[in-house]
């Protein structure tokens, strides 16, 4: 039986996992929820999950929730957690940074005072992007010479930032090359060029003030 990745029908904190699975050509059920009752009233209670939450990943007896735990599992399973100690450390740091900034971004776009906080977010974005450019340097990937699972998270984050503030990534040649290199990965191209890639969103849930899904009412 094919594994199942469960998450909302949006990019959020689950889409980078989808990218990794497509890259590794894993045949999986992409379970996407649009009805909160289906998750909260049924599956959350009945799938046998520890720490029940979205996203979840089920592969036979393996049942995992939480974005970081799923990435750690898939990274080990598919050899994307770094083949050397340095690559592992690079992966851990880049992944942690990407997740931190993604959550900080989410806090603003879901905030009831979004209109007041948006300008501060926009103003500070260039420095955040510059930090990723500095850390990437002249390497191909954030693991160094090898692709690691952090690259999937960083790609997703930078793409979202670049759509929120167009041009903020392209001004850095190394990040622009990184984005192009990632999108051109042979096993990812078909998915990236399909309407399933959610390239233009939705990025966030229906209550967000930017990039919101339209399947729920605010």
Automatic annotation (TrEMBL):
GST N-terminal domain: residues covered: 1-82
Organism expressing this protein natively: Bugula neritina (Brown bryozoan)
Pfam family, one: GST_C
Catalytic activity, reaction form: RX + glutathione = an S-substituted glutathione + a halide anion + H(+)
Identification of the protein by name: glutathione transferase
InterPro entries: Glutathione-S-Trfase_C-like, Glutathione-S-Trfase_C_sf, Glutathione_S-Trfase, Glutathione_S-Trfase_N, GST_C, GST_superfamily, Thioredoxin-like_sf
Molecular functions (GO terms): glutathione transferase activity
Main function: Conjugation of reduced glutathione to a wide number of exogenous and endogenous hydrophobic electrophiles.
GST C-terminal domain location: 82-203
EC nos: 2.5.1.18
Family: Belongs to the GST superfamily. Mu family.
SUPFAM superfamilies named in the record: GST C-terminal domain-like, Thioredoxin-like
Keyword field: Transferase
GO biological process, one term: glutathione metabolic process
Signal peptide: none
Main EC class the enzyme belongs to: transferase
């Amino acid at each position: 039986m094919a594994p199942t990745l469960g998450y909302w029908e949006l990019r959020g904190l689950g889409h980078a996992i989808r990218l990794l699975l497509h890259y590794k050509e894993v045949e999986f059920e992409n379970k996407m929820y649009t009805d909160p009752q289906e998750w909260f009233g049924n599956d959350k209670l009945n799938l046998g999950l520890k720490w029940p939450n979205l996203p979840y990943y089920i592969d036979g007896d393996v049942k995992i929730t939480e974005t970081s735990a799923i990435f750690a599992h898939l990274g080990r399973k598919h050899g994307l957690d770094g083949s050397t100690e340095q690559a592992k450390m690079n992966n851990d740091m880049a992944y942690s940074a990407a997740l931190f900034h993604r959550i900080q971004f989410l806090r603003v776009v879901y905030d009831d005072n979004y209109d007041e906080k948006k300008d501060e977010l926009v103003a500070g974005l260039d420095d955040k992007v510059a930090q990723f450019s500095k850390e990437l340097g002249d390497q191909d990937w954030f693991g160094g010479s090898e692709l690691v699972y952090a690259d999937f998270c960083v790609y997703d984050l930078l793409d979202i930032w670049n759509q929120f503030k167009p041009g903020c990534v392209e001004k850095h040649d190394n990040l622009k090359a990184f984005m192009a290199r990632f999108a051109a990965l042979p096993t990812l191209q078909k998915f990236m060029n399909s309407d399933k890639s959610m390239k233009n969103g939705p990025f966030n849930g229906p209550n967000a003030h930017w990039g919101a899904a339209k399947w729920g009412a605010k």
